[in-house]
Design a protein that fits this description.
The protein contains 6 helices and 10 strands; from the N terminus they run ββββααβαββαβααββ. With 240 residues, the protein is of the alpha/beta class.
Length: 240
Amino acid sequence: MKNRKRGLLPDTFGAYVLNNALVTGKYDMPVIGYFGNQLPDYLALYSNIQDYRKTHNTCVTFFQYDKQFDSIKGLWNAILHKNEKLLNSYKERFEGVKFIVCPDYSITGDMPLAMQIFNSYRSKVVAIWLRDNCGCTIIPNLRFNNQKSYDYCFDGIAYKSIVCLSILGLCAKPVDVQNLINGLHESIIRIRPSAIILFGECTEKKFNTIFKECIKEGIPIYCPESRNKNFWREHYGITK
C-alpha cells in the first residue's frame, strides 16, 4: 500500500481519493475488485438516469461516448478540483444505486499511449470515489484494444475479480473480433476473471468464437438485460 498524501504540494491527480487505496503495477493503478455472490440483472447507461433503479440489482455503466460523462462539469473534474457543489449533485444522482462499473474513458488504439494510460488511471480513481461516497459496489471494467494496451489495461483489476466487458460496436470487423479474442486470452493469463458480465450483443456464431476460450476455461458469461440487448437471451454458466 502506498501513501498518496502530498504534504504541502498541490494535489493535481486526485491523490486525496487514494489515501487508503492499494495501487499496483509500474503505473500505480488503483486496485478494484468485486467478489460478491450477487450480480447485476440490468445494465443502465449513465445518461439514462430513469433506469438507475429499474431493478434491485441494476448496474450503472459508462459505455457511451466520453462527451456524455466527461466534461468540465464531469465527475473527474469535480473530484480533481474538489467542487463540492458538483460532487454533492453526483452523490444525489447515484444515491441508492447498487452497482457501478468503472467509468469507460476511451483508450482507443489511435490515441497517444500516454492518454490511454491516464484514462485507465482516472477511471479507477473515479470508481474509488464513487465507492467511498455513494455507497455502491464497484465492478472493474475490462477494457483493452491492441497488444500495446496490455502494458497497463489489466493493472488494477484484482485477480479473479468479476469484471464487466462491453462488446458494443466491436464485433463488425474481423480485426475487432480478433482483438477481443486476443484480449480475453490475455485477461485469462493475467487476471483470470471469475465471471464476465457482458454489455452489447453480436451473432451467436461470433459470440461462440469470441468467448470460446472463456467457456472452455469455465469462466461464466452473464448477459443482463439492457436497452441495447436485442439478440440473444441465453446466459452462459447460469440457468434462469
